Amino acid sequence: MLTSLIRIALTRSFAPFVFEGKQAPRLEFAELAPLGLYVHIPFCRSLCRFCPYYKELYDKEQSSRYVEALLREIDSIGQSLPSRKPVTSLYFGGGTPALLAKSIGAIIERLNRYFVIEQGIGLELHPDDITPETLETLRQAGITMVSVGIQSFDEGCLRTIGRSGRNLEEKLRLVRSFRFEVIDVDLIFALPGQTEDSLLRDLETAFAAGATQVSTYPFIDFSYANNPRPPESHRRKKERLRALTAAADQLGLERTSVWTFARKGTAPYSSVTRDYFLGFGPSAATLLQTSFKVNTFSVKDYIEALSTDKLPTALTLDFTERQRAVYSLFWGAYGLRLDDQSFAGITGKRLDDMFGLELRLARLLGLLERTESGYRLTDKASSLYHRLEQAYTTAYIDKMWNIAQREPYPKKIILR
């Protein structure tokens, strides 16, 4: 209900977001900037029951076929460019990308044929993959940023999500010794049985062991997950986030998104706050000027599509003008800033021209502050966004991913 009301109010329309099962022979992105790249590696040694992302158990032969298909997808999209295109960054997500550590260099090399990566190259790391050999392979491949999925340093908390906490501090210090430019640590808050003290110890431990930033996420129980215990209440989540914010302030950290805290002056690590991005691999998404596309959530069907020189697009959302503006507004707010120049580059209009009434009201309510470049969210607004993002996840992401993981090529998904 909450997401529907906000969608109607901001888009000035009752029209839902409609993803249709249609494909295009090519993507129109040559003129888009700033553009990011994302590569999804869908393999894991075991399937964590709390993780909602598309993944399957690692198989050596299947992963080899996947890499071949991935390189074909990169060629298929990159060959449409008249020359190498500058892009902001590249991120490898999963799944467990380091399972294919020996192939990461070849994937980056293929992307470098078509793109000039101007900033960092990031990769998600499972703690089990943190060894000197793997870290050296990743550094040699060109990885400059890593995001380590610690989730918690507390053994009891980890048991509730089917994880183990052995030697996590030692592993994080090993990552630090390889001098990556950015070391992000993922932590989950509002885990069943988690106390405020253990959560704040997790935050302090992460930075003491080498993190340059910590991304804290509320425990969200997706409808298709297999969690034996439900997450804490929304009220408890709000309390935990408030405690994290206060502790980060005492530690002299900078809040760089609703759920992220970083050492001041360090480069950020984020894979979602991009004006435009191209996604490669099964389940990867692509955000263009007027459309949002999602690849099939099936390694098998992904490989088959590319073996016949077809793009593996499963779903396409063609934005209305205001839907595209709302999408930009939503993810800008996640990063705590609404930038006039960036918004105008996407929509052709100023923030105040499209959302003047809403922005004035938000300022009156103490949710926004005017800045030279646009607006900044206050702590009060961050708390409200935290609740909104969870509602959005339940109403939109959970529904779409649930269907897409059951149907490789859905005919239509309507998100109201």
Account of the protein in words:
It is a single chain. With 416 residues, this protein is of the alpha/beta class. 41% of the residues lie in helices and 23% in strands. It has 13 helices and 21 strands. The strands form 5 sheets. Strands 12-13-11-10-9-8-6-2-14 form a 9-stranded mixed sheet. A 5-stranded antiparallel sheet has the order 15-16-17-1-21, with helices on one face. It has a 3-stranded antiparallel sheet with strand order 18-20-19. Strand 15 (285-287) and strand 16 form a beta hairpin. It is globular and about 55 Å long. It starts with a helix and ends with a strand.
Main β-sheet: number of strands, strand sense, barrel status?
A: 9 strands, mixed
Radius of gyration: 21 Å
- In terms of DSSP E residues, the strand content is 15-25%
Assembly annotation: single chain
Overall 3D geometry?
A: globular
Task: Classify the helix fraction into a percent range.
Answer: 40-55%
Which ranges are low-confidence, i.e. pLDDT below 50, for 5 or more consecutive residues? none
- End-to-end separation in angstroms reads 9 Å
Q: If you average the pLDDT, what whole number results?
A: 94
The number of distinct β-strands equals 21
Structural class, by secondary structure, is: alpha/beta
What is this structure's SSE topology?
Blueprint: H1 2-11, E1 17-20, E2 35-41, E3 43-44, E4 56-57, H2 60-78, E5 85-87, E6 90-94, H3 101-114, E7 115-117, E8 121-125, H4 132-141, E9 145-151, H5 155-159, H6 168-177, E10 182-189, H7 196-209, E11 213-218, H8 234-250, E12 253-257, E13 260-263, E14 276-280, E15 285-287, E16 291-295, H9 299-307, E17 313-318, H10 321-334, E18 337-339, H11 340-347, H12 351-364, E19 368-370, E20 374-377, H13 379-406, E21 412-415
Parallel strand pairs: 2-6, 2-14, 3-4, 5-7, 6-8, 8-9, 9-10, 10-11
Antiparallel strand pairs: 1-17, 1-21, 11-13, 12-13, 15-16, 16-17, 18-20, 19-20
Helix pairs in contact: 2-3, 2-9, 3-4, 7-8
